[in-house]
Amino acid sequence: NRTMKTVNDYTFPGGHYAWKQVKYVPSWGGSLFEALMPLLVLNEPRYAPDSLGRNAAAHTEIHRRFTLDHLGYPVWGLSPSSRPSGGYGEFGARILGVRGYRAGAVTPHAAALALMVEPAATANLRELVERYPIYGDFGFYDAVDPQTGQVVYNYLALDQSMILIALANHLREGVIQRYFAADPIMQRVLPLLKAERFF
Questions:
Q1: 115-151: string of b/e by CB count within 10 Å (b at 16+)?
Q2: Is this prediction's pTM over 0.85?
Q3: What are the helix (H) ranges across the chain?
Q4: What pLDDT digit, counting tens, does each position of 97-106 carry?
């Protein structure tokens, strides 16, 4: 569905894909991190409801369905993280990405990012804790292989901070998003986001 579009007198090519009747604009690798990290500071459903906001919800829905139904994993949240075999790797729902990362480790930071658009994310985080020994003295460990149950027992500062901010937004009605939107420079730019329509 690639077409020429005009927004605010600028013409450019646009388009989208669809998977099981859900329309989306792909990210690079198909990870939840790529689709949802901007939500930590930007309330996309409010300021970009027909573009970024709708796309974040679509990525989350497709990611959840692909991981649970197609891959058969009991939990979802594929994103770059520590690899159970050692090192760091890129994981995602391949259909959501232009490059399409392979499936693999599920990481709590991706599951927590989904709290901002998907109510089922709470149950997913509970399932992670009940099924695997993934919660330690300092919060969630970085990742788990849902097929083997092998947990990566380390903490990454970036991933811990995403969990913290996602939880703060979820529990305090977008507290960090509101702080970001209150900046005078951002207030001048935010209205521009409503003009784009991805679908």
A1: bbbbeebeebbebbeeebebeeeeebbbbbbbeeeeb
A2: yes
A3: 32-36, 44-47, 52-65, 108-113, 120-131, 157-171, 175-181, 184-189
A4: 999 999 999 9
